[in-house]
Amino acid sequence: MPHSQIFVGLILAASIAGCASSQSDPRALSGLSGAEAFQQLCVSCHGPQGKGDGPVAPTLKVPVPDLTGLTRRNGGAFPTEVVRSTIDGRSNPPAHGPREMPVWGWRLVDGFNVDEAGERSRVDSVIARLVSHVQSIQEP
Question: Residue 92 region, left (φ>0) first, then alpha (ψ -120 to 50), else beta?
Fold first, then answer.
């Protein structure tokens, strides 16, 4: 096996392991700030500053977007609802093809919580903090 394939495999394993604690316990993210949740969920692909240069990015079929330019690319207005629905992922129509980005709206759900409304509110809160963080890293 070529060294480059081994290296990519190690990066993927490390990235998956880095997110394993949050994904195995979705409630672990409830008390985190948006920046902390971003570090737990998004850095492996989007990179620490959101530039699309995370260690897993080169292995993906679709280029990972630079999140710091969303406002600039949207005519000066931060696309809050687009970012929220992209992170959440549950309402993206399958007609647009499969997505490589996780559907965090499902992955963050604690399936053992019988309080559906409370759980939906908790997940929405984590996603809102992520959106707020992405808005905070916008560059001119």
Answer: beta
Where are the extended beta strands (E) located within 9-101? none
**What are the pLDDT digits (tens) for 100-126?**
788 898 899 998 888 999 999 999 999
Domain boundaries, the chain: 3-136
Q: What is the distance between the alpha carbons of residues 137 and 90, in angstroms, rounded to a whole number?
A: 24
Torsion of CA 66, 37, 136, 83, to 10 degrees: 60
Output the six-digit token pair for 53: 């240069």
The per-residue pLDDT for range 55-84, each reduced to its tens digit, is 999 999 889 999 999 999 999 999 999 999
Q: Please choose, from the candidates 86, 73, 71, the residue with its C-alpha nearest in 3D space to the C-alpha of residue 137.
A: 71
**133 within 8 A of 34, measured Cβ to Cβ:** yes
Q: Decide: pTM greater than 0.70.
A: yes
Q: What angle do CA 121, 127, 131 make, to 5 degrees?
A: 140
Q: What whole-number distance in Å separates Cα of residue 89 and Cα of residue 56?
A: 20
- By C-alpha distance, which of 132, 135, 127, 131 is closest to 74? 135
Q: Which helix (H) or strand (E) holds 34?
A: helix 34-41
